[in-house]
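Renewal narrative, Specific Aim 1. Our central claim is that a sequence can be written position by position from structural information alone. The example that follows is taken directly from our test logs and has not been curated for this report. It begins with the structure tokens describing the chain, in the order in which they were read.
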């Protein structure tokens, strides 16, 4: 079984493109902190390239931006290719089946959970209205 679940922050704005046959795809990368710290107390971070196809990719491109926290569910896919120098390379992509947006609306990044919500616009105070003379019953 090839399943992966990751929660992390986008390292750059998503890039929406189309294949030659017109199918939309969105490429983005997320940074995922490891659950432990190294000997010097520093937390390590892993970076994953992600691909979302069709409507899912269009939603990611529309609603996510650099710094947003997302949950990605999908599978790991290995790609073999040849770089510009002719060397054979392997790339690892996470092919997304689902992406959940975890950054609350109105915040700039996923680290703003503890900050207070933006102040709501003050509503006009309700005024008493006493005009019983027009009520027909």
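The sequence written for that structure reads:
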């Amino acid at each position: 079984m090839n399943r992966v679940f990751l929660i992390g922050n986008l390292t750059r704005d998503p890039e929406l493109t189309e294949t030659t046959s017109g199918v939309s795809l969105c490429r983005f990368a997320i940074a995922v902190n490891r659950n432990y710290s190294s000997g010097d107390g520093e937390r390590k971070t892993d970076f994953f390239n992600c691909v979302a196809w069709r409507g899912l990719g269009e939603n990611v491109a529309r609603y996510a931006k650099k710094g947003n926290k997302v949950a990605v569910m999908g599978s790991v896919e290995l790609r073999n290719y040849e770089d510009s120098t002719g060397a054979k390379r392997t790339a690892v992509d996470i092919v997304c089946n689902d992406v959940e947006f975890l950054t609350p609306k109105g915040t700039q990044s996923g680290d703003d959970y503890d900050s207070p919500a933006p102040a709501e616009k003050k509503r006009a105070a309700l005024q008493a209205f006493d005009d019983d003379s027009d009520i027909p019953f």
